[in-house]
């Protein structure tokens, strides 16, 4: 088994969405996990930019940050796990968590960025419901008279 074969096998078999974009933001790698999460096949996604999954209202902010990162070689997120909304091919909203890695050539120049993404919509919805229920219970405890009426 060569390292190249192993790398291809890991990318292909990963249930997480693995996406690589070049310095201009064009998708260059889109695995089967990305297809499962976002609904676009690799042939539909590769060659396009991330607008296919970024909600319209967040695109300017995303691209401002993306281009700054490509120009400076710095990302303020480092190794943090980020949580953002995304859009599925059919238009429904997703909640995703992801981490990024800057990709550099042999000269150290940034040539792209990779992201490993996981859809967490179900968990986010459960957390939101629990926070709502907790707020309701706390309000009842704070006003015992209101709770009995």
Automatic annotation (TrEMBL):
Annotated PAC domain residues: 80-132
Superkingdom, natural source: Bacteria
Domain called PAS: residue spans: 3-55
Source organism of this protein record: Mycobacterium florentinum
Keyword RNA-binding in record: no
One GO MF term attached to the UniProt entry: kinase activity
Record has Kinase as a keyword: yes
Family matches, as Pfam families: PAS_4
Keywords: Kinase, Transferase
Protein name as annotated: Histidine kinase
């Amino acid at each position: 088994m060569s390292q190249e074969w192993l790398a291809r096998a890991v990318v292909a078999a990963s249930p997480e969405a693995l996406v690589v974009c070049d310095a201009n933001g064009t998708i260059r790698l889109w695995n089967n996990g990305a297809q499962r999460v976002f609904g676009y096949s690799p042939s539909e996604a590769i060659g396009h930019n991330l607008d296919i999954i970024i909600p319209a209202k967040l695109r300017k902010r995303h691209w401002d940050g993306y281009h700054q990162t490509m120009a400076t070689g710095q990302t303020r997120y480092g190794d943090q796990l980020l949580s953002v909304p995304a859009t599925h091919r059919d238009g429904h909203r997703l909640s995703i968590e992801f981490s990024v890695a800057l990709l550099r050539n042999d000269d150290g120049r940034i040539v792209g960025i990779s992201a490993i993404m996981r859809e967490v919509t179900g968990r986010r919805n459960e957390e939101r419901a629990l926070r709502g229920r907790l707020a309701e219970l706390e309000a009842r405890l704070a006003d015992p008279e209101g709770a009995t009426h």
